[in-house]
Amino acid sequence: MSCAYRNASCRASVTHRSNTDGNRPTSWGEVSHYPSHLEVTVPVAETSTAVPDVPVQTVSEVTWENLYRLLHSPTDDVQEVALLVLAHLLHVRGRQCILNLTDTDIMCLWQSVLSMAECPSPSHDALIRGVSVEAAVRHVTHMFVHCASPYVLEWMWNSIMARTESSPMTTNDRYFAAVSLAVRCAFPLWMIPNGMTVLKHAIHHASIRNPESVMSLVYDIVSLWVTHPDHSGYRVQMADLATSVLVPLTPDTPEPLRLWLKAVESILRINPDWFTNVPQIADTIFAACTSEHIDVVQAALDVLQTVAPYAHPRFRSTMEAVIRQKVWQREHIAICKRATALLLESMSHTHDYDGMYHLIVSACRDI
Predict the structure, then answer these.
(1) Which helix H or strand E contains 315, and what residues bound it?
(2) Angle, nearest 10°, between helix axes 195-209 and 174-184?
(3) Torsions phi, psi of 29, nearest 5?
(4) Of 37, 63, 96, 366, which has the fewest CB atoms closer than 10 Å, so is most exposed?
């Protein structure tokens, strides 16, 4: 449609009597169309790919000054309460809400943290809602480790050693007592020189006296360690922990074996190839699947579900053995269902559709 045609066109419209003779009623008339459309300019917002910075919710300067003064109180009780307040802020707002502590601050406060870890006061639990004393110690230690220089980090470990050597509660190997205290504080022992050597020495020597408590300690160490994946040499040290600590300590009683399996699962999440590269690990896990203890079998199936070693020559035969065990069919059918699901998943992964068919037919027949 041309512009000339549009300018010449007319449209029918209702003409109000105010536009005509007052005696004429409202009537139809012809009103010329507007000569052109109105030009409307729409403002275009400037595009930008920059993401605005999210402000960090920090504590006020006055709050921090008062808390800092309490942290350096000469009274131990006041200092411990201030540490609980600091832990609460770290728990709620994160480490970025607090100014970095100096090495002098850490050396002043570390003994109080160790006292709280050794003998947590039940009265302190009610002071800070939502944060136990044990959790508070871990929060504060994590901040100390972040702020400390390498020298102070090693000094913190030496303080743990000195404290356990002089403590009347140390009845076992002093290294084992020191490592246990370090784990309660969430102190990353692997970050100090010779930390792995101390760790392995403590575990191997104490395992002769009390293997169950040692396995509980190893599980706590692995659980703590996997929360520090940014540490240099992380994968190498975890592999060393698996081969030189966990494999030689393979337990044969139910609860230590369950803890062993949970620790192995955490390590295998980092590198599933260790399942096949370390044959002792795979052998122990497959053997645990046929245990008579449900907690052990569940933990072993958890590892297999994490690693998914469908191509392993023992995988299918082990799952079939679990399914055939009468004790699980009678009392804990969930075990059979898990093993069946893993077996079906492995057949789907290898495109063994005939095997899937026969397994489904067999399961329907048993049901």
Answers:
(1) helix 315-324
(2) 110
(3) -140, 180
(4) 37
Q: How far apart are CA 176 and CA 161, in angstroms?
A: 10
Distances in Å between the Cα of 63 and the Cα atoms of 25, 56, 68, 70, 97 are: 80, 16, 8, 11, 12
Residue 147 φ/ψ region, left for φ over 0, alpha for ψ in the -120 to 50 degree band, beta for the rest = alpha
Handedness of CA 28, 31, 34, 40 (dihedral sign): negative
Q: At what angle do helices 294-307 and 333-349 cross, to 10 degrees?
A: 20
Question: Residue 32 forms beta bridges with which residues?
Answer: 10
- pLDDT tens for residues 98-135? 888 999 999 999 999 999 998 766 655 555 666 788 88
The tens digit of pLDDT for each residue in 62-101 reads 888 999 999 999 998 899 889 999 998 888 888 777 888 9
Closest CA to 105 of 160, 134, 163, 146: 146
Query: Two tokens at 16?
Result: 């109000």
Name the E strands within the chain.
10-15, 27-32
> What six digits make up the tokens of 156?
């913190």
Q: Which of 355, 337, 358, 333 is nearest to 346 (CA)?
A: 355
pLDDT digits 0-9 by tens, 280-338: 999 999 999 999 899 999 999 999 999 999 889 999 889 988 888 866 666 678 888 88
Residue 108 CB neighbours (<10 A): 14
Rg (CA), the chain: 35
Q: Which one-letter DSSP state was computed for residue 242? A: I
Q: Which of 321, 327, 262 is nearest to 292 (CA)?
A: 327
User: Which residues is 29 bridged to in the sheet?
Assistant: 13
Find, among 256, 254, 222, the residue nearest to 239 by Cα: 222
Instruction: Dig out the tokens for 264 from the structure.
Output: 């192995």
